[in-house]
Amino acid sequence: MARPDELVFAPLGGVGEIGMNLSIYGLGNRHQRAWLAVDLGVSFGDEEHLPGIDLIMPDISFLEKERKNLMGLVLTHAHEDHFGAIIDLWPKLQCPIYATQFSAALFEAKCAAERNQPKIPVTVVPSGGRIDVGPFNVEFIPVAHSIPEAHALAIHTEAGTVLHTGDWKIDPTPTLGSPTDEKRLRELGEEGVLALIGDSTNAVRDGRSPSEAEVAKTIIELVKAAKGRVAVTTFASNVARIKAVADAAKAADREVVVVGRAMERVVQVARETGYLDGVQNFRSPEVYGHLPQDKVLALCTGSQGEPRAALARIANDDHPEITLNRGDSVIFSSRTIPGNEKAVGSIINNLVLQGVEIITDRDHLVHVSGHPRRDELRDMIAWTKPQLLIPVHGEALHLHEHAKLARAAGVPRVLVCRNGDLVKLGPGDPGIVGEVPSGRLYKDGTILEDSKSRAVVERRRMAFSGCAFVAIAMTEQGELADDPEVDLVGIPEKNKAGEAFDELVFDAVVSTIEGLPKPRRRDPDALGESVRRAVRAVINEHWGKKPPCLVHVLTV
Fold this sequence. Notes:
Blueprint: E1 6-13, E2 22-29, E3 32-38, E4 43-44, E5 55-58, H1 61-65, E6 70-74, H2 80-83, H3 86-93, E7 97-99, H4 101-112, E8 123-124, E9 130-133, E10 136-143, E11 150-157, E12 160-164, H5 182-191, E13 195-199, H6 212-225, E14 230-233, H7 239-251, E15 255-259, H8 261-272, E16 296-300, H9 310-315, E17 329-332, H10 341-353, E18 357-359, H11 374-384, E19 388-392, H12 396-408, E20 413-414, E21 421-426, E22 431-435, E23 440-444, E24 447-450, H13 454-465, E25 467-474, E26 485-489, H14 501-514, H15 518-521, H16 524-543, E27 549-555
Parallel strand pairs: 3-6, 6-7, 7-8, 12-13, 13-19, 14-16, 14-17, 15-16, 17-18, 19-20, 25-27
Antiparallel strand pairs: 1-2, 1-21, 2-3, 4-5, 5-23, 9-10, 10-11, 11-12, 21-22, 23-24, 25-26
Helix pairs in contact: 4-8, 5-11, 6-7, 14-16
Protein name: MBL fold metallo-hydrolase
Pfam families: Lactamase_B, RMMBL, RNase_J_b_CASP, RNase_J_C
Domain Metallo-beta-lactamase: 21-219
């Protein structure tokens, strides 16, 4: 009798980290599998550890090799950490993409904003709809989240049904869009769920995430009480929050001025797709200065401290149209993503120095998470009754706590895996059965670099310890044709004794050359390596750091 096909799962991003989500599901046997990809997101560079790197993306080399077996890419929702890598990576895959209307429209607007507008077709699926993607039947189940049209995916196969939750929470009173479809999730539980692949972001937090409706109420109270100008910053994709801010402005008889391209793009897409029906028209930044101080509200990008976003420019007092003064207020209707604390803190300090009042979620309920806390995770388990639970979308602590909670809730099997692990889901006993290539790609300007890229490694070293440049002109007989040239970048001018570093390096270069036998002096590679080692050694002796050293040898 023929053995039934195996259903396998492998995360290529988003496990052991928050961001860069890419999951793949395979159906078949070891020799031949059909693959389904879910989400293709980015995470953001950290200037301290990755200077000059804008975005980090999952390594898709495995999918490139399996391209003919890749049936499609399905999107749970349109947050950057779930769809931000498509423009850069889709040309390597060329597979069909499936998404609901809002996600597809936001992606189209994102493509339109690119310098060379890419043509990437997306098939629109209705919310709650079902589609066949090769041997996978994928059902889009509405869930509440901080962006319209977030969906859990029920992936139906002959080996069983997997529920891939995507990002979700339970919000019985969302201010926009559908609540989480408890009825359908309970039905799935009765039908049988082989595996639950679940969001772990808030697995360390007790209780339940508050509702968007409570945030909307707080924002109305704060905007009504404000005396001067008001600026509100939030994640541009949070359309429910944009609507709440617009309602607050209307209640306080203020005009809404939208500041920042990302916010303008989302507002345009939300209007086109009907999510801002009945909401007043917003004004452009040029109008801001002509409106009375108590009649204007600026809705700004930059809640994460992004240096080129609207709020950073306002805080630095270099925005062409928007200014804030003593007595004005800024509401941070967002949480600071770990890693962005310094950048956000700098903006807040600059605003405080201008006399602006700062309101954050530390003192008022101006933001709620779009992810489930522990009681909501328990509800999802109770509704869907999975045979197996795999925590994803979280760092090691989040995955560990989600797994512990699942075991306590009576889930028969719980498995914690890492990016690149190939997990057999069924039939039979689940477990890690292999590994697939995984890793990171860096978006460096317009170039995609491997994470081991020399440029990235060297730039990190240069950021820490500067760089030494040495140019040497030699005759064919192995004699110096002229004095060596030394240029030190990012290195102190003098050592502790007050001696000039460029003179110390110059002397080390000359003495090294003079100390070499003639045959080595006539070999540019050998000469360059000897000088490089000597320069690094003398700088280390006087400074305690070994900078990269580039030596150029010219024979004249």
